[in-house]
Amino acid sequence: MRTRVVAVAVAALLLLSGCAAPGAGTSRDAPPWPRPTDLSARADVAALRNVWGERLAEHVHTHLTILDGDDPVTVPANIGHSDRGKFAAEIHTHDTSGIVHVESPTEQTFTLGQFFDEWGVSLGPEHVGGLRGELTVWVDGHRRIGNPRSIELTNRREVVLIVTTIGEVPHLPAPFDWPPQYG
Known about the structure:
Elements: H1 2-16, H2 39-45, E1 58-68, E2 71-73, E3 81-82, E4 87-88, E5 91-92, E6 99-104, H3 112-119, E7 123-124, E8 127-128, E9 131-132, E10 134-139, E11 142-144, E12 157-164
């Protein structure tokens, strides 16, 4: 009986400490998380492709805010994008504003999980990268329960991911102030 109790306790500690392996090529480290350098390989992992120079049927923008408690985490510029390399994955960033661009020659559903796969940062119902604790998710100002990977990237959507210590009350930040060109 004692052996079984110890085994259950060890399993619970491993689960709580986040020892479960993240997806292939993803980060378990704490932020900052750099942009990937092998854009094509990361796009492949996320089931995306290079659409540089193609006519677009879809062009939408989602804003992503990530907070480690009250500390903002920067979403890097040029995830899935390189002017010099003439590369633009269907999901990408241009700058560090948190604006995620979806540009595709076909209208289809793209998800936050694909963006994180492309970035190389693990995302699940209880973590963002190496940030573990209590994950609170808001979409367009409304609390969302469930796996954030399935959140659809739609025009002017606002996604907030906050990781806090267990029991800490997360605070929804002010809405993103969209620049006028995204009106």
